[in-house]
Amino acid sequence: AQKITQTQPGMFVQEKEAVTLDCTYDTSDPSYGLFWYKQPSSGEMIFLIYQGSYDQQNATEGRYSLNFQKARKSANLVISASQLGDSAMYFCAMREGGGSQGNLIFGKGTKLSVKP
Amino acid sequence: EAGVAQSPRYKIIEKRQSVAFWCNPISGHATLYWYQQILGQGPKLLIQFQNNGVVDDSQLPKDRFSAERLKGVDSTLKIQPAKLEDSAVYLCASSRASRLTDTQYFGPGTRLTVL
Hints:
The structure holds two protein chains of two kinds. Chain A has strands spanning 4-5, 10-14, 19-21, 24-25, 32-39, 46-52, 60-61, 64-69, 74-79, 88-96, 105-106, 110-115. By secondary structure, chain A is an all-beta fold. In chain A, strand 7 and strand 8 (64-69) form a beta hairpin. Chain B has no helices and eleven strands. The N and C termini of chain B lie far apart (37 Å).
């Protein structure tokens, strides 16, 4: 079974509007972390935002916020006021607390295109 | 603070040849990772080092892939002999430690094409 599922292969959004990228995860570990990364065409993975399983509040970083719904096992990324430079691949990833704590498990990604 | 450095950025080789990639992590980062990213997929962990020791290499194809981090800083990943299915981007990442909250920072990657 996939541990990270991103159901939107591609998304379009108008510049200056908000967009939500979906991510659902599967784990039986009570301790885990969820990460979102951006990968522009240049190839580098850029860290955007982190949410811990025990965090009481949704994480926010500038124009990025994470809509964390623990019971539904979803961790959707919300980008407000989209900019042309936001066009990229976006990956959701999870790290589980038990055993090896280093391994990031990634989803297949969502390609976001921002239209002027 | 300098980011994770990788070289080369691009490499084209024939199948059955060997190739090596180099990574220099962020200064002070004890944990180093190598990921393989096949086109259209998310990265997959190949190997994780804590200082110069291997923590996890369960997904490394050990018959052809090898990696080392001799002095706990730089690392090299080698493929010998390469196969067509090894065509991918090889990403190096580093983090301060391997705790749950430690963010992994990635380098620009090496794009390998095997002909």
